[in-house]
Amino acid sequence: MASPSRSGVFAAQTDQRLEAYAESITFDSRLYRQDIRGSIAHAEMLRTVGLISDTEFTQIRDELENIRGRLDRNELPLRFELEDIHMHVEQALIDATGDVGRKLHTARSRNDQVSTDVRMWIRESLDAVDALLLDLQRAFLSRCDDDFDVILPAYTHLQRAQPVLAPHYWLAYMEKFERDRARLADCRRRVNQCPLGIAAVAGTTLPIDRQQTAEALEFEGITANSLDTSSDRDFVLESSFVLSMIASHLSGWAEEWILWSTVEFDFIAIGQEFCTGSSIMPQKVNPDTLELTRGKSARVMGSLQTLMLLVKNLPLAYNRDLQEDKPPLFDSFDTTRAMLELAVPIVAGATLKRKSIAARIEKGYLDATTLMEWMIRKGMPQRTAHHLVGAIVGEAMKRGVALAELPIETLKELSSEIDESVYEVLGTENAVAAFCSEGSTAPHRVREQIAAWKHRLG
């Protein structure tokens, strides 16, 4: 059977090698629900403007719903010669209704049909990813109160820098995922414009109502220019970029917790249900889920690169190259959702190793910057204080002690401006308590942020 896309101008049959080469049904079949919903809305509009009758609309609608059921049950055979899901649905409709089914494609092209289907699919997928990000934020938030008494070392250059409360770490990831959610929402607004009715490239001479189909399909508006719409895949690339940012954040978190779960750090225990063993080393409990998250993030970012290269030099308007946008698009969403679905229970179920953390929290002179700022409050210039504290840390390193363990006599030898009150800011607990700026790890600021997030997330 020849594809319905081949008109009477063709005198030769399609080469079977081309059929296999050009088909997309093996990956775009997942768009069938969107395709059928869009077709029903299009048929209803055709009835409204008088291009089909009430009876014809009813026949088309009922049979499309029947086809949807057949596809749900995997009862509709998929054939290369029909190329894509759009042709499969249309051919099944024609097989069932004859000339009535042949009217469905009036004032429509596969160009605007495909764009409509993909936009609806992306819209739903963006919402699903957003819901998972919200779940992940709630998982981090659920830890904040229980972990409030834990002080962790914050790192720069992977070297111990300053002490922070554990919930300050959790809130940092919530901020990252909140920006991701904002990007999703912003992307969704541009996705949610209806292309249906621009037809192939120039519009149509038939009296259609694009606003009606847009409203029926819950789009916020219609695309403005038929040439642009026929070629536009910005919404595909933008959604892929947003997913790449999410993947980057997940990869960074995974890397951090992989490090934290090592004997060298010994900060956190990952639930064993998300770990694997070794085929030869019986003692191993490996955080493979996190390693896979770190690895799978590369697939999402690679898909963005594929999409950017796909469209970089296409002339207006539609080109068949655009068929190749779906495999990387689908894989990006599938991979991101899989990463998020596992991240949520991992975050909720991990356990901070409090004794191990506390035993080493004074290592690394995390209170050095707080000591410097104490001197600044005493009137010392910042650069002078910076140099002096470096000397004090050097003395502590020689003795193998923490700053708080240096006797006052030693401190006064290094600076006559130091007095006994210095010990109020030395040690990690005192250092954390000394913070006060907005956005800092100051306990009262962290509590404010936890309360604000609880209100925001409900």
UniProtKB/TrEMBL annotation:
InterPro entries per record: Arg_succ_lyase_C, Argininosuccinate_lyase, Fumarase/histidase_N, Fumarate_lyase_CS, Fumarate_lyase_fam, Fumarate_lyase_N, L-Aspartase-like
Catalytic reaction annotation: 2-(N(omega)-L-arginino)succinate = fumarate + L-arginine
UniProt-listed Enzyme Commission number(s): 4.3.2.1
Compartments in which it is found: Cytoplasm
GO MF entry, a single one: argininosuccinate lyase activity
Pathway: Amino-acid biosynthesis; L-arginine biosynthesis; L-arginine from L-ornithine and carbamoyl phosphate: step 3/3
A Pfam family annotated for this UniProt entry: ASL_C2
UniProt keyword terms in alphabetical order: Amino-acid biosynthesis, Arginine biosynthesis, Cytoplasm, Lyase
UniProt domain Argininosuccinate lyase C-terminal: residue ranges: 365-433
Highest taxon listed in the record's lineage: Bacteria
Principal subcellular localisation of the protein: cytoplasm
Annotated Gene Ontology cellular component terms: cytosol
Similarity remark: Belongs to the lyase 1 family. Argininosuccinate lyase subfamily.
Record's protein name: Argininosuccinate lyase
Organism: Allorhodopirellula heiligendammensis
Gene transcribed to yield this protein: argH
